[in-house]
């Protein structure tokens, strides 16, 4: 075997080993989601919430590792979507049902089913969209963000010891709202392809350090606040764009009349 063929074979083997990394990370995300389901059934709601957060971290890592190593594939995309349905669809739905929705009977499990169904629809729509047209935004609330909102709500309520029917009613409304936002046409910012100038990289790094410090002060509160801000950012931005368009239309009408 010539040196050229040996080098080529080495590169292929090396590439094959690297291509396993995204799938391993996706599997860890799936494991965390399944653990969240088991924990929720056993009444360990805080453990389930943390497991969903951990699943979201590994879900964000697998895609970045695949892009950095040049090992993106159709198999990886499909595997990631199936794992996302379990970790960010079934797991938070069961957590919400066991935590607060069970007393509502049929309305409770129907709300949980609606959440799973809209997660599946959200993933199917995302997989069929042209991802090259708009890399800086998502259409509809990403399912990891919706799952994180439910998980951080559990952590937030546990920290302040919120109990009673008011909490259950708010969470029931939250599950319906998150289900709608996932399949809506509302735009949300995407951080998968950040565009940062070289001159601003240092400022971004300082900002990340400050963000980590804020999150570390009391994660059960700061993570909830961060998730709520992101969830509300889509509808608020949509209302702002609508008001700007109406104001612009009124100004154009006044110019035509003048």
Task: Explain briefly what this protein structure is.
The chain has 8 helices and 2 strands; from the N terminus they run ααααβααβαα. With 258 residues, the chain is mostly helical.
Task: Assign an overall shape.
Answer: globular
- Total number of strands: 2
Radius of gyration: 22 Å
Q: How many domains comprise the coordinates?
A: 1
* Major sheet strand order: 1-2
CATH-defined superfamily: CDP-alcohol phosphotransferase transmembrane (TM) domain
Mean pLDDT: 85
In helices, the fraction of residues equals: over 70%
The N- and C-terminal alpha carbons lie at a distance of 84 Å
By CATH, the topology is Four Helix Bundle (Hemerythrin (Met), subunit A)
Stretches with pLDDT under 50, minimum 5 residues: 3-18
- Strand-and-helix sequence, N→C? HHHHEHHEHH
Biggest sheet architecture:
2 strands, antiparallel
How large is the count of helical segments? Answer: 8
Give the name of the CATH architecture.
Answer: Up-down Bundle
Q: What is the class in the CATH system?
A: Mainly Alpha
Structural class: mainly alpha
Keywords, separated by commas or semicolons:
258 residues, mainly alpha, Four Helix Bundle (Hemerythrin (Met), subunit A), two-stranded antiparallel ribbon, 81% helix, 2% strand, globular, disordered N terminus
